[in-house]
């Protein structure tokens, strides 16, 4: 008997996932004035871990030592990646934060490539970063840009660790247990910042929505799409995230980008798109920003 559960076709599912992630980032940025990046990251990751634990119900006592050795560093990097991204988001526009963060997985995709055409993608990505960089000492917050690039480096490491973890654990269990360790790594920083004392029922509701839009919903949609969508197609669609972030920042947060910054977004998106077509490196898996 066929399932009556509602499912979306793969293409709308991925596009809705992208919109959901960027909408969640807009919610997060609205929480920064009250909770700061540490408190906001703690709410997102903490509630995401709680929801996933309740839904997936992983049997932690049955995990083997090799599985723990894979999933623990995966979860810690996941937490650090999200924390650094929120630190960047507190200082620079959403579109630029996602664009700079995307350099991490793009670099991983191009690492070790022997194709001459891939030099074009490296040049395009470098040109994009050059266009964003404030060469005259003003404009972009350099610390915020540094946080975004560090988050991108964590994203690349997260992909490598995620592949290793997926080889020894089912996908839902891997992400759920990983999110638990991400929470254990990040929530203490939120508590130490003192932001939890400012929590109200309204903020708790926003934190729950943040977890749903940034983690739970996109994770579910991406897993659903990947059942039938080729991984290369999935990667190409993920290359649209910087553009979606830039439009989300403009529409939801009133963040304006300069012409050079829009060109930078375009260059890095084209580089990511091209690298996806010409390399065989693994694409980002569920749980990204």
UniProtKB/TrEMBL annotation:
GO terms under cellular component: membrane
EamA domain sequence ranges: 143-274
Keywords: Membrane, Transmembrane, Transmembrane helix
Gene3D superfamilies membership: 1.10.3730.20
Pfam families noted in UniProt: EamA (PF00892)
Topology within the bilayer: Multi-pass membrane protein
Subcellular location: Membrane
Transmembrane segments: 38-56, 68-86, 92-112, 119-136, 142-161, 173-191, 203-221, 233-253, 259-282
Family named by the database record: Belongs to the EamA transporter family.
Designated name of the protein: DMT family transporter
Organism, as annotated: Hymenobacter sediminicola
Species classification: Bacteria, Pseudomonadati, Bacteroidota, Cytophagia, Cytophagales
């Amino acid at each position: 008997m066929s399932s009556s559960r509602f499912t979306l076709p793969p293409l709308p599912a991925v596009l809705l996932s992208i919109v959901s992630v960027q909408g969640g980032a807009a919610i997060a940025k609205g929480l920064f004035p009250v909770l700061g990046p540490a408190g906001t990251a703690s709410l997102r990751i903490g509630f995401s871990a709680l929801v996933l634990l309740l839904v997936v119900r992983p049997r932690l006592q049955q995990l083997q030592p090799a599985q723990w050795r894979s999933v623990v560093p995966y979860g810690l990097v996941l937490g650090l990646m999200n924390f650094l991204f929120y630190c960047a988001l507190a200082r620079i526009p959403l579109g630029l934060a996602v664009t700079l963060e995307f350099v991490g997985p793009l670099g991983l995709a191009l690492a070790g490539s022997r194709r001459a055409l891939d030099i074009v993608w490296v040049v395009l990505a470098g040109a994009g970063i050059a266009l964003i960089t404030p060469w005259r000492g003003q404009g972009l917050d350099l610390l915020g840009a540094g946080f975004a690039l560090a988050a991108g480096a964590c994203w690349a490491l997260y992909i490598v660790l995620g592949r290793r973890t997926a080889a020894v654990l089912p996908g839902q269990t891997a992400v759920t247990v990983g999110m638990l360790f991400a929470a254990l790594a990040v929530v203490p920083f939120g508590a130490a910042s003192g932001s939890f004392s400012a929590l109200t029922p309204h903020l708790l509701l926003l934190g729950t929505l943040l977890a749903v839009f940034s983690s739970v919903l996109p994770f579910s949609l991406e897993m659903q799409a990947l059942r039938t969508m080729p991984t290369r197609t999935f990667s190409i669609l993920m290359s649209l995230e910087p553009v979606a972030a830039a439009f989300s920042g403009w529409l939801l947060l009133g963040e304006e980008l300069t012409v050079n910054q829009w060109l930078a977004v375009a260059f890095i998106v084209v580089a990511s798109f091209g690298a996806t077509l010409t390399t065989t490196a693994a694409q980002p898996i569920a749980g990204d920003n």
